[in-house]
Amino acid sequence: MAAWNLLLIMVKRNPNIGRLKAGYLFPEILRRRREFAALNPDARIINMGVGNTTEPVPPHICGALVEGARRLGRPETYSGYADEGLAGLREVISRVYYNGAFGIDEIFISDGAKCDIGRLQTLFGAEVRVAVQDPSYPVYVDGSVLSGAAGRENGFAGCGEGGCGGEGYAGVTYLPCTPENNYFPDLSGIGNGSVIYFCSPNNPTGAVTTKPQLAALTAAAHRTGSIIVYDAAYSEYIRDASLPKTIYEIDGARKCAIEVNSFSKSAGFTGVRLGWSVVPKELFFSGGEGVNAGWSRLTATVFNGASNIAQYGGIAALDDEGRKEIRGLTDFYLGNARLIREALKTLNISCTGGDNSPYIWARFPGRGSWDVFSEFLEKYHVVTTPGSGFGPAGETFIRFSAFGSRVDVEEACRRLTER
Ligand code: PL4
Asked: What is the pLDDT of residues 287-309, one digit of tens each?
C-alpha cells in the first residue's frame, strides 16, 4: 500500500466554520440559477441578484489603470510594496471624502471593503458582542461567526427589541429594520461593548440614514461604549444633498467609528479591487490601546497592500474628470433602479430604495423569500436575492440589484409587466 494511504491528518478544522448555518448567500443563488438553467436550456436568464457591476470602467479612469501598468514596466517609475497605500491616494481620499479632516496615517488603502471587514473582525476577535441592522450584508454576521464572536453559546443577547423574527446567531443583536420603523432600527437593544455594523445607503433595503438618525446611532455607540463599523460602500449613490455621505459628518463619530468604503460600485472596480478604511487616532479600545495602532499592526502582518495599478486608477477616479465619470456611472445604475421601481409599481408590489441606492427592496407579505425568488426565476427568468439571506427580518422580501446592462434591465422589466 502506498505510504500516503496511511496518512492520517491530525489538524482540526477551525470549529467556527462548522458554526455557519448555511452556505454563503451568493454562491447558493448561483447554484440555484445553474440548476434552473440546466433544466431550462432555452431560458435567457437575467441577473438582478448579485450586486455585480456590468458597465466598463470609464475612459479617464481606465487610462490611469493602463498607465499604472506601464509604470511598472519602466525602471524609473517601477514601484513595489506600498503596504498602507500610496500617499497620493490617501491624501486625495481625505480631501475628497472628508474635507481633509484625516491624516494619511488614518486612511488605509485596501483591496475592497469586504476584505477589510474580514480583517476588522480579526482585530476585534471572539470576545466582542455584535449588533447588526437586520437585514444586512451577510459578511457582517458570517464573518463574525468565523472570528468566533457569533454563533457560540457565549451568553450574549440574541435579538434586539422586537425580536429576530426568525432564526439568528447567538451573540448577535439583530436590529430589525422594517417598513414599520422606516428602516431605521430601535437602538435600545445594543449591548455595552458591541461592534455595531451599520450600512448606509443600506444593502439590501436601499434605505439611507438621515443626519439625525446617524447622530442617534453615534450617541448610542457613546452610551454603550461601542464601536461602529460604518459601511459606506454605496455613498456615491446618494443624490439627496441633505443625506450624510459619511458618518464623520456627525460630531463625536471620530471617537466611536471606523468607516469602510470602496471603488467597486462607484468606479466599477469590483474586479479591480480597491477600497479604504478610515481608522481615526481618537478611537481607543476599552483597555486604552489605540485602534489605529492595532489596525496598523494587524494589516502590516496579514495584508501586503492593494495593487499599485489599482491605486493609480483610484487617484484618477478622484480628480475632476474621474469624479465626473463616477457620477455618470452611478447615474446610469440609478436610471436602471428607476426602471425597476416603475415596473414593480405597475405590479402593485410595494418597495423601497433605488433613489439614493442601487438596490430595491420589494415586499411580499406572508410569503417566504426563497419561494418568491423561485417564482421570479421560473416565471420571469429573473434572478433576484431572497431577503432571508440578509437576516431574519428579510424573510418576506426580495432584493433587486440595479447593476446590469440597460438592455437586460429593460427586458427584465418588460417581462415583469407583460407576463
Ligand atoms: C457578492 C455593503 C454585493 N461576492 O467589492 P468590495 O469588497 O469593496 O465591497 C463589497 C461590499 C461591501 N459592502 C457592502 C456590499 O454590499 C458589498 C458588495 N455586495 C451584493 O450583491 O450584496 C456583492 C456580493 C460578493 C460579496 O460577497 O461581497
From this structure: 999 999 999 999 999 999 999 99
